[in-house]
Amino acid sequence: MTRDNGGNGHPESAVPGVTDPGAQVPERERRRDPLRRMIALARPRSSRFALGVLLGAAATGAGVALLGVAAWMLAVAADHPPITALSVAVVATRALGVSKGVSRYLERLVTHDAAFRTLAEVRVRVYRRLAATEPFGRFRTGDLVSRLVNDTEATLDLLVRGLTPPLVAVVTGGTTVLVLTVVYVPGGVLLASGLLLSGFAVPLAMAALGKGPGRRQAEARGALSTTLVDTLHGAPDLVAYGAMDRQVARVYEADEVLTRVEQRDSAVLGLGAGATALVTGLTVWGALLLGVLAVEDGTIGAVSLAVVVLTTLAAFEIVAPLPAVAGKLGAIRASGARLFGVLDTPAQTAPARKEDLAGDVCADRAAVTVSGLRVRYGPEDPWALDGVDLEVPEGATVAVIGPSGAGKSTLASVLLRFLEPDEGRVELGGADITAYPADEVRASVSGVPQDPHVFASTLRENLLLARPGAGDEELWEALARVSLAEEVRAVPRGLDTEVGTHGTGLSGGMVQRLALARAVLASPRVLVLDEPTAHLDADTRDTVVSDLLDAAEGYSTLLITHDLAGLDRVDRIYVVREGRVLQSGTHAELLAQEGWYRDVAG
To answer: For residue 16, is the peptide bond before it cis, meaning its omega torsion is within 30 degrees of 0?
Structure first.
């Protein structure tokens, strides 16, 4: 079997959702402008946003009409007409005032609801993509956090502030110009010119000016987050080596860079606000001047003059938000590019095709067979595994041993469906694991990674990750199986003991046993133990290996290690160097042979 490393692969479903989170994004989609792709995320709720635009247009139009009707009423009232002549205007004023508030509330309710639901879907997409692609090594922790939080939330800013207001401006602005043109043609033309300047030319200039600062702002925010997270996570080592002051200085430097970029962004926004105010003032003065001249030559009356001037003033409420939005487009585009940098990350494993499935994986037997397995991390990289053949019989314990860099952990990643074989075949219970969804394979193959993650919660919560519905009796049984029950019973809070951040409240051996208890609790058919003693001292290592092998009895177990502790208890040992199997046999057989195993053991 050969994996296709091409660029197109399996396309995503139509934006915004991805039916298969491991599907690769087409090249054409990746090249689209990030803003267009972010707007496309809202496509399933386009009807809601359309309703929001209509409600926003109603609210803004009511505001403009309110000032226009008020101008007419005040101008007419100056002649002291009968109160009945103003009754319609009074009622209209009240109706417009109420409708403006109600429409604005409904518009915010509808658009924000649609935007937040879209944001929730985007977050799910990001998490699903991360789960499918395992790209954590491609992004630094702080940068990934910034992408997950700040850059993802930029979608909300674009949909709420960058999508609805321009559409509302087109609808309401066009209507207002049309009505004013009916009242006084030159006034309508002047208003159209002012709205085009304030709602198109100024925002266009703001978008151009804000493009650079916006991109730098997203980068600076990511750099600050990365530096800060690195400082927090590495605090013990930084203190131990006397490097904390230098690292804190880096945090301050990153913060200063972000502050300078944000100041420039604020200057761009201020310039846009000033330009809008200038255009507004000039347009209103122009309307007043043209109106006065028109009144003098009898083209329009004094009442119409008041309506034209105040309606012109009110109309700029329509385009007022646009320059600020345009100034932010650079930052939003940069955030979108960073967001899609995560979503476009290619999957490490190809999605399973339903037509290839032949029943449940590992339905009958739990034997593992690896034949001619070849894996590398890139087309130009050397082979991490180069023609590996091995077998783990059902219920047997098999060890894979070799020096660091031999390819042992790569083998574990393939078995756990974190990597796709380039060539060869891996069978589980006689079934090719690449033909099944990764999660289905992982339900049958569980393991303990070299650095198991312990969540900053209780022992109970860490165990329940493997089986959320497990009762206390099942939890204690899993702990007893890995020789951890007595230690947990000895602490006052038992299963409710807090383990601390990254398991700092536990010893290294307890962390490994807890990770194995979690794996056992998942009821797998195959256990993969990847360097379970990598960070333990010699005395603890021997004890932990013994406990792990005891707990693994009854499972098909693959023990991946670089030392010989406990290997006299395993059924077969494979020696791997430079991605190839050099020796295989039992502990006694390998000691009797010349080679790497006997050299290390001797």
So the answer is: yes
Query: How confident is the model over 97-141, as pLDDT tens digits?
Result: 899 999 999 999 999 999 999 988 888 888 877 766 554 556 666
What's the DSSP call for residue 351? P
Q: Which residues in 288-396 belong to E strands, given as ranges?
A: 368-375, 385-392
466 phi, psi to nearest 5 deg: -75, -35
Q: Which residues, in sequence order, are CB contacts of 238 under 8 Å at separation 6+?
A: 231, 244, 247
- According to CATH, what is the number of the domain 27-343? 1.20.1560.10
Q: CB within 8 A of 25, min separation 6: which ones? A: 11, 12, 343, 344, 346
Q: Helices 244-296 and 202-233 sit at what angle, rounded to 10 degrees?
A: 160
pLDDT at 353 over 90: no
CB atoms within 10 A of CB 478: 25
**Pair of tokens at residue 492:** 């006052």
Residue 426 parent element (H or E): strand 423-428
Q: pLDDT-based confidence at 271, cuts 50/70/90?
A: confident
Statement: the pTM of the whole predicted model exceeds 0.85: no
- Give the 3-state DSSP-derived string for 373-413, with helices as H, strands as E and coil as C: EEECCCCCCCCCEEEEEEEECCCCEEEEECCCCCCHHHHHH
What's 356-455+518-601's CATH class? alpha beta
* Pick from 385, 381, 443: nearest CA to 412: 385
Domain with CATH 3.40.50.300 in the chain: 356-455+518-601
Q: Which two tokens stand for residue 427?
A: 């069978």
DSSP SS3 for 94: helix
Query: For residue 161, is pLDDT > 90?
Result: no
What CA–CA distance (Å, rounded) separates 41 from 23? Answer: 17
Least confident of 365-369, 484-488, 556-560: 365-369
Side by side, which strands form the sheet with 423-428?
A: 385-392, 368-375, 423-428, 431-432
**What is the share, in percent, of the chain residues with pLDDT greater than 70?**
88
Interior/surface letters 176-198, b for 16+ CB within 10 angstroms, e for the rest: bbebbeeebebbbebbbebbebb
Residue 312 CA to residue 332 CA, distance in Å, equals 32
Across the range 485-493, mean pLDDT stands at: 84
Overall average pLDDT of the 405-413 stretch: 85
Token pair listed for 572: 């077969």
What gap in Å lies between CA 590 and CA 602, rounded to an integer? 11
Which amino acid, 243? A
Residue 167 CB contacts under 8 Å (≥ 6 apart), including other chains: 53, 56
Q: Whole-number mean pLDDT of the chain?
A: 81
At residue 430 the predicted structure's pLDDT band, cuts being 50, 70 and 90, is confident
In the block, residue with structure tokens 């005395």: 539
For residue 547, pLDDT beyond 60: yes
Place of tokens 């924000």: 112
Which one-letter amino acid corresponds to residue 585?
G
Q: Where in the chain is the domain with CATH 1.20.1560.10?
A: 27-343
C-alpha 39/C-alpha 10 separation (Å) is: 23
Closest alpha carbon to 75 in 361, 275, 300, 234: 300
